[in-house]
Amino acid sequence: MPDFVAGRPPSYRPPAGATGVDAISGADPFIMQADGKAWLFAPAGLVDGPLPAHYEPQESPFRNLLYGQQHNSVRQIIRHRENRYQPSGDQPGSEVFPYVTTTYRLTEHHTAGGMSRFLPYLSELQPAFFCEVSPQLAAERALEHLGWVTIITSRSAIEARVLVTERIRPLQQVGLPWHWDRTAIPPGTPPTSWPTSRWTRTCTSRRSRPWPVTSAPGGGPGGQPCATS
Amino acid sequence: MDIPPADLSTGRAEPGLDPAARAGHAGHPPRMGFFTDTSVCIGCKACEVACKEWNAVPEYGLSLTGMSYDNTQGLSASTWRHVAFIEQSAVTTRKRDDAPISGTGAEGAAELRWLMSSDVCKHCTEAACLDVCPTGALMRTEFGTVVVQDDVCNGCGYCVSACPFGVIGRRESDGGAHKCTLCYDRIGDGLTPACAQACPTESIQFGPWTSCGSGRTSG
């Protein structure tokens, strides 16, 4: 084996002045590291951690209850006039967008919907963009089952049909399937039109969910768009 | 009415349950049917899509119904498989450790169950649609299934009001009555119907009628 001397027992201890593979004891299993030992810190590449702490997402309306610092201090923020961030936690104004959204897929459509929302056989199974809310949230915001709602962030607003369901438990979140756009049969609005752009540093993945929103009843074709309340 | 037990050794139903023989098919193959296990249905609607693809059934209605995830609503001339979704909440009367999707699991908490089931033509032993058809378009096949002959059907619609399950309907585009054929063109070649073939959990099972239903649950 290239990384370990075959036949070397776990009781082997390197003599003084040993170099190379001979300097690694028989009980050091981390063969990907030069000294065979586990490392918590790295000389390059790791900008976050290594020990996990809980941070709240960028726009989380909740204060970080587990850790004194609200956000990950090495998160990458993209400042742009089209990418305004909402206040988070205890910051003033965070109560303006009190509801959290979550996005998910439906069985009937495929990934982001780009290949399935034009197909009549699949579109008739889930024909319209909708959001799912708990009965408690619907009562709080005057939302009607199968009615329209305008979902608003600091960046944009979208309109969706409402499905009131007990499957959404009261965290006060808005569930959004994300398969539709203007070219779908029938046309809908993608919830991806208003995410924020924010990236984690270590793995460079987009970490913009969950998005706090507020809502206003009404909207849709012919409806009056509503301002934030 | 007592239903006599099936003769499992020959795979043939008792005479009262052998409609193919009564229709005049001598030496017919075993009666075939569906057994649907709704406890494993995951509501994927693969059965609906596979049926439409194989039988070239047209798309029928792009409307958000709000009936949970069921936007198909029911069986019709252009919907031969329909998956129903029922969100059922029941208040628990005793503390349960295995309660699914319950709030706290405590007594009195609402327990939510999401039930899914795939509906289809039953190909009845005593088929009302077949009995009332004035043209003979509806016929009994050698497999014991009920099939509409599209070139004979005159679109009168007697079958629509006769079916107690609301399965068959008239299609506006051609005026004729259409319904599930139990993939007559597939089972005739030894294949399984499109819906049973597509079902990922084997909720829809297809086979000799004597091994479905009561034959299966009692054995």
State the main characteristics:
A: 229 residues, mainly beta, Barwin-like endoglucanases, 2 domains, B: 219 residues, alpha+beta, Alpha-Beta Plaits, two-stranded antiparallel sheet, 7 helices, 17% helix
Short description:
The complex is a heterodimer of chains A (229) and B (219). Chain A has 229 residues and is mostly beta strands.
Q: How does this structure look, described?
A:
The complex is a heterodimer of chains A (229) and B (219). Chain A has helices at residues 120-123, 135-141; strands at residues 76-77, 99-104, 130-133, 148-152, 157-164, 173-177, 198-199, 212-217. With 229 residues, chain A is mainly beta. Chain A folds into 2 domains: 1-39, no CATH class; 76-217, Barwin-like endoglucanases (Beta Barrel), CATH 2.40.40.20. A 6-stranded mixed beta sheet of chain A has the order 3-5-4-8-2-6. Chain A has a two-stranded antiparallel sheet with strand order 1-7. Mean pLDDT of chain A is 77; it is low at 182-186, 193-208 and 222-229. Chain B is of the alpha+beta class and 219 residues long. Chain B has a single domain, classed as Alpha-Beta Plaits, CATH 3.30.70.20. Helix content of chain B is 17%, strand content 19%. Chain B has a two-stranded antiparallel sheet. The two termini of chain B are 22 Å apart. Classes of the chains: A mainly beta (229), B alpha+beta (219). The interface between A and B is medium-sized, with 23 and 26 residues.
Residue runs with pLDDT of under 50 for 5 or more positions of chain B: 102-107, 215-219
Average pLDDT score of chain B: 86
Total tally of structural domains of chain B: 1
Report the mean per-residue pLDDT of chain A as an integer. 77
Number of helices of chain B: 7
CATH topology of the largest domain in chain A: Barwin-like endoglucanases
Biggest sheet strand order of chain B reads 1-8
The SSE string of chain B, one letter per element, is HEHEEHEEHEEHHEH
Provide the CATH architecture of chain B.
2-Layer Sandwich
- Overall number of strands of chain B: 8
